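Bump. Still looking for Tetratricopeptide repeat protein structure tokens.
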Amino acid sequence: MAKFFISIFFVTNTFITISAQDLTTSFRYIDSLITADQFEKADWLLDSIQRIPYIARHEWYRVELDILKGDLCLGKNNYIESIKHYRSILTKAHPADTASALKFAKALNDLGIAYYHTSKPDSAKNVHHRSIEIYRSYGDQQGLAYNYNNLAIIAKDLKEIDKALNYYQKSSDAARSINDSLGFGFIALNLGVLCYDNKREIEAIEYFYEALEIFTALGKDTRANSVKTRLGKAYLRLNVFNSARSILNQAREYFTIHKEYWHLSHVYIYLSDMFIAQNQPDSAIYFLNSALECSGQMNDKTVSGQIYYRFGKVFEIKEDLDSAHYYFERSLNGFAGTHLDGEMISRLALAKLLLARGEFERAIRESEKVRAMANGNLGSRHEEVAYTILYEANKALGNNLKAFRNLEALQSVKDSLFNKEKALEVARIEYGNYLETREAEQKAEREKLKLAYQQDLNEQRWVKRFAIACFLSLVIILSCWYRSHRLKKRDNAYLARKNSIIEAANNELRALREKDRINQLREKALMNKSIATKERELAAIVMVNHEKNTILCNIDQRLAEMIEMVEDDTKIGLKELKRLVSSNLNLGESWNSFIHQFVTVHPNFFESLKKLNPDLTLHDLKLCAYLKIGMDNKNIAQVTYVAPDSVKKSITRLRKKLKLNQQQNIRHFVMHLDN
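Sorry for the wait, here they are.
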């Protein structure tokens, strides 16, 4: 209905009358197009619908139109344009009815997403909190879960870890209250990412396993294997290489089968990281080549930059500095303008390489450029590398004051890094203890199961004896049953033979009956054929009599005219000839002859007509007889010496006398009467 309605006023560009229901239906249809990513069609429809005068007179429809435009831009990842459209709702109070209010709250949530992607976290937080107030007033837990999850992402980016954890917990509570398993899975995944980013690897692994369990149960296989990729990264950071290899290979197998090249390329990258950490460059090169092949299917510069960076690290291990320099340059080209962190670590690696090659000034420029790009947000590990390069390069160039300042900064970073390394080592120890504890628990569980099995074994001894007794009883019962079965089988065979004899007799009887039926059908067909032949003969006789009588009438009339014209002697002969002609012109005898032959073919026809209507005249009976033998109106008119219109009127009167309705065909009725 919406397609038809919209197409009318889009073609004319004017619309005289439109109901609110029709407009609401149209908005709903456009929203479905945006959800289905049919952006071009939705954009065209929105531009057309904006020209309706009815929209300008109703404030809420203008707001709803702005929301749809914002949704369209957000779907296209055009965040700046989406903010322009969503911004109109900031000065409005939310509507009173539930559906419109929830739509208003969703628009605020989407506006927060747009603010976040345009680096306006404060504005994003404000609109998310306003959306939360509306969702809470209407008890919509789904909307609360979405907003709290978005606030957690913002807090994580602002390094407000406690706030992020708090928001994730609120999002989790909201999702749990409505049994939103999928939403809870995403929350567990985000919590795992948050813990991983903040060096809380054990908690991250626990959250990742929780998300993996949920996604697997819901059949979200792609998402589940994506979580396995993150688990592999966490295991790599803890140097638990066997677990990392096992779970990454599971993800690799799935993504290879389903040709998920983006995910597959990252799995290969993490597998190469594992071999780089184990100082196995040749194995790392194998997986990096596989990752490069996958990235070629996507044309993703960021993924290519990550791969080339690791190629540089591999050749740095192999002490092939020229190849390492080449790949670090290529990684810079891949990260440029798309991935700031990647560009910074590639420049640091390049600066470190330049330092090793004695190009101190270039090494200093690259390091300073990285610090400027980081704007104070460079990680401790990368800060250590940057200050080390600056210290060594300035020292080599004789810039002692700068070298001393960089050495102080380096020492400060090392102290901080020592604490983080210590924390990571503690995490590894804790994870080792966790594995030992889990192994001890599993061992205790195995001992418990072994003890329970032994108890079951002891309890089952009497069961075996009982089973032997039951077996012997069963053998006796089966023997008796087998003997009974043999007797029954013999009786059944006798009955089957008897039934086969009876069935053969019945088949023979059915064959005889079928033969009689066929003979009857043949006789009936022959009889019908004979009747049809006789009816044709009757019609021919009628027409021959008619022709004969017509000729005789013409001769009689001509003789009468000639008698008046000739002399008296000749008149006597002509009169004698006229009497002879008149004696042969006997219409009554022709009819009687026809009736005699007609009754021979259809003996009960006139009796059946009389039963239907005893008041039928001789003319009516004649008309029915002519219809019975298949004569048309023209032939009937000729043999009865009347006009065809008179025959039609006679047939109409006959229909009324026979009490036929308008749907009944009188010819068909008469033809099948007394058959």
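The first helix runs from residue 2 to 12.

Edit: fixed formatting.
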